[in-house]
Amino acid sequence: VVSSPSVSLANASVCAGNTTTIDAGAGFGSYSWSNGSSTQTITVSAGTYMVTVSNNNGCTASAQAIVSTNALPTP
Fold first, then answer.
1. Quick check: 2 pLDDT over 80?
2. pLDDT reading at 25 higher than 80
3. Strand duo 12-15 + 60-70: pairing
4. How far apart are CA 57 and CA 73, in angstroms?
5. Mean of the per-residue pLDDT values for the chain?
6. 69: left (phi over 0), alpha (psi -120 to 50) or beta
7. Contacts 24+ apart (CB under 8 A), 40-47
8. What percentage of the chain carries pLDDT values higher than 90?
9. Residues 8/63, Cβ–Cβ less than 8 Å
10. For 31-47, what is each residue's pLDDT tens digit?
C-alpha cells in the first residue's frame, strides 16, 4: 500500500491592486493549479485557487485557497 500525498493551502488577503504568493509545499512529483500553472508556487491576485498534487506513484491530493481583497484606505 502506497500512501497518498497530503497538501494544504492557507487562505490569504491582499490590498487592492497587489498580489501574493501561494505555496503548495515541496516534495511532490507534479503540481497542477486551477490557473494552469505547474509550479510549486503561484503569484496571484484576489480569487479562488485550487491545486492538485501527485507523488511519484500516481496518487493525488487537492486543496483550495481563497485570496480576498482588502480595500485601500482613503486619506
1. no
2. yes
3. parallel
4. 49
5. 94
6. beta
7. 43/19, 44/19, 44/20, 45/14, 45/18, 45/19, 45/69, 46/14
8. 85
9. yes
10. 999 999 999 999 999 99
